[in-house]
Each structure stands twice: as structure tokens, then as C-alpha cells.
Amino acid sequence: MSGPGSARLFVAVDPPVAVREQLAGWARAALGVSGPRLIGVDGLHLTLCFLGHRPVAEIDAVAKLALGCAMPVPELELGAPVWLPRRRPRVLAVEVRDPSGGLQELHSAVGEALASGAGYEPERRRFRPHVTVARMRAGSTAPRELDATPGLAFDAEALTLYRSRLARAGASYEPLARVALS
User: In the chain, where do the E strands start and end?
Assistant: First the structure.
């Protein structure tokens, strides 16, 4: 259901701005400007739940359910670069490690709240925390050798409900509701 009365929604964790800036800089250095389409600093996030198109009238209720699950998520670490999916990659992502288990706990809590209160259907595949840093352009090929990512450790900054707007130049993400996770 897409149309003027609907919004494409997802819930994400936002890394601190300094981490997003370093990730964007790493991607620029690793890929250059003529390969895959780089995601800007403001577009870097860690998706927990993608809800797809939902009626605009549900936004406030979805925000209340999702953001009501907010909890601190400490000790996240940037891992290796990974092309997704492995066959015919469409995006370059950086794995996010969760040694404390806090991110997995938040993912589960948000998913359960949205499933019980908003009819969300969780994905069947296991949660694979990552930040997408680039998307493949039509006809481009993914370089296989990439420099190591900046090995940063950080605490999650915020939990955000985003609206995604698709366009030829790429998606833009509008924060609709946000809560700090500190």
C-alpha cells in the first residue's frame, strides 16, 4: 500500500555523528566517487525494523511503540566491510559487533512491541547488524579488496523512527521521532 496517505517507515539506531563522519570518510577513500553511490553522513544508520508502507495516521502510534523500548546500547564496534547480498552485491555495509548483547535486546524489544501493537511482521532471517555505506549503481561492479574499516567502538546515540523517500538519486531519510539512548 503506497500512495499519498502512506509513509515508508523504519526504526533505526543512530551512531554518534563522529562515527558516521569517519565511516563516510572511509567509504569515500575505499570506493572513490565514480563507483557505488555513497551514502551521506546523515543517511548512515543501523536499521532494526523495516515496516514498509504504513498509513500516515499510524505514525504517532508506531513511534510511541518503538521509542517506548529505548534502552542504552553500549559497546558497539565497527567490524569488517561486507557486500550484501554476497552473490550479486547491491550494497556495501560495515558490520556492527554487539559484545554486550544490548543491540540484540533492543532489536527484539522493538520488534515484539511493533508486532503486538502495530501488526509488524518481523523478518525471518536472523538480525545482522550493519550500517550501509554505499549502494551499487546500475552496471557497476563491486571491488573485492577493501581497506579495513576504522575500528571504532561507540555507544548508540539515538533510536529513531524514519520515513524513507525513494528517488532516482537515492533514498532520503526523514527523522519523524527520536529518543536518546544515553
Answer: 6-14, 37-38, 46-55, 76-84, 91-97, 130-135, 153-154, 158-165, 172-180
**The cell 544515553 sits on which residue?**
182
Q: Can you give the pLDDT of all 182 residues of the chain as single tens digits?
A: 566 799 999 999 999 999 999 999 999 988 876 678 999 999 999 999 999 999 999 999 999 999 999 999 999 999 999 989 888 888 999 999 999 999 999 999 999 999 999 999 998 889 999 999 999 877 677 676 788 888 899 999 999 999 999 988 888 999 999 999 97
Q: Which amino acid is at 44?
A: L
The CATH homologous superfamily of the domain defined by 6-180? Cyclic phosphodiesterase (3.90.1140.10)
Walk across the sheet containing 46-55 and list its strands.
46-55, 6-14, 158-165, 172-180
For residue 67 the three cell numbers come to 521509542
One-letter amino acid at 150 equals P
Residue 23 bridge partners (DSSP) = none
How far apart CA 125 and CA 157 sit, in angstroms, is 26
What's the CA gap between 25 and 23, in Å, rounded? 5
